[in-house]
Amino acid sequence: xxxxxxxxxxxxxxxxxxxxxxxxxxxxxxxxxxxxxxxxxxxxxxxxxxxxxxxxxxxxxxx
Length: 63
Prior knowledge:
Structural class: mainly alpha
Keywords: Cytoplasm, Exonuclease, Hydrolase, Nuclease
GO cellular component, one term: exodeoxyribonuclease VII complex
Largest sheet: none
Protein name: Exodeoxyribonuclease VII small subunit
Enzyme class: hydrolase
Number of strands: 0
Distance between the termini: 43 Å
Pfam families: Exonuc_VII_S
Mean pLDDT: 89
Number of helices: 2
Helix content: over 70%
């Protein structure tokens, strides 16, 4: 059975990865299967970044 691992990326890394995904879409070089895979990756990344930003926002509110 595979373990589900969640890799935590920094905000900078995450935004860089998102920019890369957007560039790939803009280039038009992806076939349909690649586009769907990259879209799913982008959605997952956005969710992770949103959670990370929420944690950081809560930490700032405590200050």
